[in-house]
Amino acid sequence: MRIHLFGAVLAWDYLLAGWLRERGIDAHYYFNFKRSEADYPWWEDRNFDRANMPAWCHFHPFRVPYLYRAPLGATGRAFVRSIDEGADLLLLIGDGAFLAHHFRTPYSILSCGFEVEAAVPAAIDWRALAGRLTGGRELVNIQRQLNYRGVQRNLRAARSVISVMEFQVPTYLAEAGIRDNLKVLPMLYDCSRYAPAPDPALNARYADQEVVFFLPTRHSYGTGTTNDKGADKVLRAFARFASATNARARLLLIRKGERLAESDALIAGLGIAPLVEWLPQMPKDDLKRYYSLANVVVLDQFANEDTIPAPMHAAMRRFGARGAIFAEAMCTGAPVISNVGSEWITRFDPRPFVWNACTEEEIVRALGEAAAIPAAEREARGRGNREWAFRHLDWRSVIDLFIRHFEEIVR
């Protein structure tokens, strides 16, 4: 079986193609000009050689038009033909959902988030848009309004729509009418990539801290969508925690996202600047040094309940809204605070060492509980997370579920 993969953010399709090839599937990865440097394969894999790519990796100088009816042009048509040629199945992720109607080969759409959000109508606040010529959430909503019927058709025409984010099922996917071709599968990662990588110099730098809280998520919030990562909520929770405790604690942030100026102002306004440290954006391999700090507790993402619809927030609380940070930290053996989902967490015995939190109040409580545990105990219990991750998140434990599904839909 030959599968061609295209479209993901964060080069997840590149990783998945490699894992499928490890299992004997003739998988090929196609990529084009991306919106972010972090979406290219070399950001995920520092050994990726752009000048000498593997034969199963194919680059085309094409930019996806994020309008369903936009013409592709000669370059785009050539890109589509190259993806079509010789494949038994296309696995389209992210950008692929916008181009699916151009392909002749049967396809499955694997949802990483925004492609199913794009399949439902958006409410537009014209007053918020007034006077704003570029950027802004409302312009994105206008784009969604122009696209959603076409993206819906692409999802419904797919051999399957694979959801690895279960909160999407009763929300976006239900609203888009995706039922008969829906398949829920677990997210998968390469846990071996996130082997603990303690850095003696880095550990010495933070040795005087009882606990180091690390929030690698991007500063995107107030957006009214699942792109809301809730970094502002964490800042407010940390300020409340810091004012109520004498614990020596520091909060590390990554300078990434469109709300950096707002976060800087919020930090200053909350009076926590001496306790906060900004780090530059870094490749995934470098994050391991921070995940491996002896006194670290990693924070994931926490969508704000006042910027998303109540049914969406209820689904996130039930099924979780875990990001890649959750998995990376678990694989490295770090303790984690994450919105893992009240129902999802009960499916495992033993459960991972994680604080389930969603609201600001719950994050404050989790910060306090994490700081109260001695660092040596946190570190020991965190090591159990790595064992748990290999059983439940690692691609070697999960990939056969995907392969069996692909075999079923190409028969």
Overview of the structural elements:
By secondary structure, the chain is of the alpha/beta class. Helix content is 41%, strand content 14%. The protein has helices at 12-22, 41-44, 73-84, 96-99, 114-117, 126-129, 137-157, 169-175, 200-205, 231-243, 260-270, 284-291, 310-319, 324-332, 360-372, 375-392, 395-409; strands spanning 2-6, 26-31, 57-59, 89-93, 107-111, 160-163, 182-184, 211-215, 249-254, 276-279, 296-299, 336-338, 354-356. A seven-stranded parallel β-sheet has the order 3-2-1-4-5-6-7, sandwiched between helices. Helix 2 (41-44) links the parallel strand 2 (26-31) and strand 3. Helix 10 (231-243) packs parallel to helix 11, helix 10 (231-243) packs across helix 15 (360-372) and helix 14 packs across helix 16. The protein is globular, with a radius of gyration of 21 Å. It starts with a strand and ends with a helix. Mean pLDDT is 90; it is low at 131-135.
Quick tags:
seven-stranded parallel β-sheet, 17 helices, 411 residues, single chain, alpha/beta, six-stranded parallel β-sheet, globular
Order the strands across the largest sheet as they lie in space.
3-2-1-4-5-6-7
Mean pLDDT across all amino acids: 90
> How much strand?
5-15%
Instruction: Sketch the topology as an H/E string, one letter per element.
Output: EHEHEHEHEHHHEHEHEHEHEHEHHEEHHH
Structural class: alpha/beta
Spans of at least 5 consecutive residues with low confidence: 131-135
How does the major sheet shape up? Answer: 7 strands, parallel
Mind sketching the topology for me?
Elements lengths: L1 E5 L5 H11 L3 E6 L9 H4 L12 E3 L13 H12 L4 E5 L2 H4 L7 E5 L2 H4 L8 H4 L7 H21 L2 E4 L5 H7 L6 E3 L15 H6 L5 E5 L15 H13 L5 E6 L5 H11 L5 E4 L4 H8 L4 E4 L10 H10 L4 H9 L3 E3 L15 E3 L3 H13 L2 H18 L2 H15 L2
Parallel strand pairs: 1-2, 1-4, 2-3, 4-5, 5-6, 6-7, 8-9, 8-11, 9-10, 11-12, 12-13
